[in-house]
Design goal:
about 450 residues, alpha/beta, seven-stranded mixed β-sheet, four-stranded mixed β-sheet, 15 helices, about 40% helix, binds pyridoxal-5'-phosphate
Length: about 450
């Protein structure tokens, strides 16, 4: 009953989105241009909203419904939507043109800015997406070590490139996408974070293992932080065995403080991939790290490693918006603390509530990253393994739908808290999640 009523209410208030969705299905596979942007709603007979505008913590859809948005443009919009300082800076620049396919001083400035606040970054190559960055980092690592294998975290998301799209859905080896080589042929090993698995892989494959890549907090995988001690041990073992360590900081970079998360962790990898926030909401990817590894890509290098080459690499608007964003973030330490505390509080309050009420939902995350998982049964403090084993995709879709109906937009349950979110916004999010948690948890799916 709850599902039916929620779907009816959703549909009634979104006639324009529904109309466009019909057209979208005719022109775009699955109606979307990014796999997760159905918000899972197709699983329960719904359709996604089409967004018209964003302002601060809010989004407005084409039917004029307003949402407190936690998805924040795939975590990129840490300043909230349409921040005036970035908008004005970009507008100013637009008067000069926006794509020259040449070098601009802004890419040098952005590189300098990032290098200045991150001891692990000696040189940078910019590209357009995080997907490219992780693919290039893997290639650089293979070239540098002259070894073949890359180990990646299970449930780790590094973009849908051919190199790393293995075991992205969970901890069990799920079916591989048609069109990709088998992991063995592709030279990929996968491991569960915070477990012994990677240390066995290192032991058995040190002569062949070029690099280990992982996110310090599994983002697309659902907000699972890697244990800092585990990361430290990984650093020691990789160093000891001539294996490169790559942190994918596309989400965590500049998310918790005005630099990469590795500095706070005290674990400096050989290579780091960046994206999202450092482009100020414009398309960006970057690979940074030890000079001698990145320098392999220089046209002057004896055996130049082919990376980059994108028409839009170092895209001027991304450099400009990124620079302005990092400048603002440089003076935002208080705001970082505030949103970190808001996130921690929200996560703890929600988990306490879910647990006391024995609900089939659990929150995971770190500071301003907060995601919700729905399960087929209540489990007290489920482990990551249990969360993946008992994941209930339809219940997650219903949760998302019920949130939209109450003017909250998110993905992976919620997503993140930006500096535009007020304490009242976060209190509202908690109130709404608690309100819908019972019926979402009790709903039966066929
Ligand atoms: C950790 C991580 N790495 C890489 C990527 C890919 O970045 P992009 O979507 O810019 O290609 C993502 C995207 O969500 C990500 O979360």
């Amino acid at each position: 009953m709850f599902i039916k009523e929620e779907l009816q209410f959703y549909e009634k208030n979104r006639p324009k989105s529904k109309e466009i969705w019909k057209k979208a299905l005719e022109t775009l596979p699955g109606g979307i241009s990014h796999n997760i942007r159905t918000f899972g709603l197709h699983l329960i007979g719904g359709f996604p909203v089409f967004i018209n505008s964003g302002d601060g913590p809010n989004l407005k859809d084409i039917d004029d419904n307003e949402y407190i948005d936690c998805w924040c443009g795939h975590f990129a919009m840490i300043l909230g939507h349409n921040p005036p300082e970035i908008r004005e800076r970009v507008k100013e620049y637009l008067a000069y043109g926006w794509h020259f396919g040449t070098n601009t001083e802004y890419q040098v400035k952005l590189a300098e800015t990032i290098i200045k606040s991150n001891p692990g970054i000696e040189k940078i190559r910019f590209c357009v997406t995080g997907t490219e960055a992780t693919m290039y980092a893997s290639r650089l690592a293979r070239a540098f070590t002259k070894k073949r294998l890359i180990a990646k975290a299970k449930a780790g998301w590094h973009g849908a490139n051919d190199t790393l799209s293995y075991d992205i859905g969970g901890l069990k080896s799920v079916e591989l996408s048609p069109g990709l080589l088998k992991a063995e042929q592709a030279g990929i090993k996968t491991f569960e974070i915070n477990s012994e698995e990677i240390f066995h892989i290192i032991k058995e494959n040190s002569n062949e293992l070029a690099a280990i890549i992982l996110e310090p907090v599994l983002g697309g995988g659902g907000g699972f932080p890697a244990d800092p001690e585990y990361l430290k041990r990984l650093r020691e073992e990789t160093e000891r065995n001539g294996i490169l360590l790559i942190f994918d900081e596309v989400i965590t970079g500049y998310r918790f403080t005005n630099s990469l998360f590795q500095n706070e962790l005290g674990v400096i990898p050989d290579l780091t991939t960046m994206g999202k926030i450092v482009g100020g909401g414009f398309p960006i990817g970057a690979i940074g790290g030890r000079k001698e590894i990145i320098d392999q890509s220089s046209p002057d290098a004896v055996n130049q490693v082919l990376i980059g080459g994108g028409t839009f690499s170092g895209y001027p608007l991304s450099m400009i918006a990124g620079l302005k964003t990092l400048e603002i973030l440089n003076n935002s330490q208080k705001e970082y603390s505030r949103i970190g505390q808001e996130g921690d509080r929200l996560l703890n309050n929600l988990n306490q509530f879910f647990n006391e009420e024995k609900l089939k939902i659990i929150a995971k995350g770190h500071k301003s990253i907060i995601m919700l998982h729905a399960l087929t049964k209540w489990i007290e403090q489920p482990t990551m393994r249990e969360i993946f084993e008992f994941k209930d995709r339809k219940r997650e879709a219903l949760l998302q739908l019920a949130l939209f109906n109450r003017n909250i937009s998110g993905l992976h349950g919620l997503g993140s808290i930006s500096m535009a979110h007020t304490h009242e916004n976060v209190a509202k999010i908690q109130e709404v999640v608690e309100k819908i948690a019972h019926p979402v948890s009790q709903s039966e799916f066929n």
